[in-house]
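[Q] Does anyone have a clean structure-token version of this?
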Amino acid sequence: MKILISPSIREFYKNQIEYNIDIKLIDFLNFTFGNKIEINFNPNFKKKNYNLIILCGGNDIPPYSKSKSDIIRNVLTNKIYNHAMKNKIPIFGICYGAQYIGFKNDFVFKKKKMVKNHTVYLKKKKKKNFGN
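[A] Here you go.
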């Protein structure tokens, strides 16, 4: 199984961009699909035949931010999203990813002051703590 993960983008220092993926997401995917998966999170992804594309959390969607890191993320996510739609690849959004999918499909958003942690429940016999 080939999985493409769209990383979050952070600007920690002047003009230095960092790509981030939570290691717990990698652990979760290995736990769910076994160690027989190929994960790519290169921001300059090659258009392979992916079985799944994951838009992970981090950053803000276009209407709510004009920061450099958010603009770069939105350009990258748009390329990946269009690739998924054109090639009919399943796409899964986590936090920012789900909001981005909604944004692209004209969903209505309500801004909240505080968002709490989310819990993931698995229906497998094995138990593993992936955190919040």
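[Q] Thanks! Anything notable?
[A] The mean pLDDT is 79.
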